[in-house]
Structures are given as C-alpha cells and as structure tokens.
Amino acid sequence: DGGITQSPKYLFRKEGQNVTLSCEQNLNHDAMYWYRQDPGQGLRLIYYSQIVNDFQKGDIAEGYSVSREKKESFPLTVTSAQKNPTAFYLCASSTRSFSGANVLTFGAGSRLTVL
Amino acid sequence: AQRVTQPEKLLSVFKGAPVELKCNYSYSGSPELFWYVQYSRQRLQLLLRHISRESIKGFTADLNKGETSFHLKKPFAQEEDSAMYYCALSGVGETSGSRLTFGEGTQLTVNP
What tens digit of pLDDT does each residue of A32-49 get? Predict the structure, then answer.
C-alpha cells in the first residue's frame, strides 16, 4: 500500500521540550514538504526538500528543524524556540519538478498539543 | 512574492444549487493553479489543476489571468461535496522547486 505515513497521530508536549514528528513515504518521490495547518490560515510551508541531504526553509521555518538523510524519510523537529507550536502538521511528497508544481500527496497529519 | 486569497471562510448552499468558491491570486509571473479538497476524516487531496482543463466530480475552474482568479464552480451541489477546499498556486519555472502556496481555505457545507 503506497503512501505517506506520519507518526504519531496525536502528540502532547510540555513547554520547553523538543519533539520530532516522523514522515515516511514509499512512493519513490524525490521532494518532501512540511506544512502547518491552522484554522483560518490555510497551509503554511515550514520546510521542503527536493533531494536527499538538501532542504530549504519555507515561509515559517523559525523554531523548526528538519533532516533528509534518506529519500524515504523527512522528520520535523519542533523545538522549544517555536512560540506557538500547537497545530496540525501535514507532510507531503511529490516527484521533483524543475519547471513548476507537481501534484502533492499528503499524509494523514500529526496533531501536536503543547500543555 | 506569491499570495492566494480565498475570501469566504464558510460557504453554505442547498443541494442542487450552484456553488462557486472564490480564489484570487497575486503572482508576477505565469502561475499554475490548483484546487485541493479535504473531506471529513480524509487526507488532503488534489481536486483539479488548471492545466488539465478537466471536470472532476462535476467541478470546473477557469484561470482568468486578467482578473487573477481561479474560481471553483459546480452547477448542482451534492451533499457529498461538503468539505474544506483550498486553492493553491505555484510559479512556473521556479528553480527552487515545486513549492505550493495555499489559500486560507473555504469550508463548504451542502445542506439537504
């Protein structure tokens, strides 16, 4: 069953703690993305990666970090520096494009709540 | 900079009525536009893209470069169309990759 798997589905964190959200894909996609979804604000891009060992900041990267050591995996760390981390996080992937956008395949999401 | 605006957060229509979800964009180059949909308890997924010029589930969307709009339309709404709809934009020719900018989303409710 091909697709994107995000874990955990729900996560609770105390203030001051870092937390890592997992994203794995078996679609053989080169590009992977992390979005944050907040009510009334749509999806905002945190980080994206076009290829292994390379990634770029999106529009709201502050307080987040990522790594791309394997093609299949793109974990997101929400650090204690993120001022408002409670949100729904979506991971996506696509084939790589040099001339425009390809269709994104999304995971089911991870809901992070900071207590 | 690229920006997508969906002016209606909530839209409610009755079954069988026409529906139009508005999307306006700002982009200095030639854009690619998309509509993504998220049904209750399902993943966000592509509904349609302007370059395909398809009708999906009865929905169509025409890119109007003069008005910088990409409104989503359906002549007769069905209850199963109730969902959150996102308009998204990507610039064509971006070497930085296929990053999409999403609008704020419109929650469509089709009442029986």
Answer: 999 999 988 889 999 999
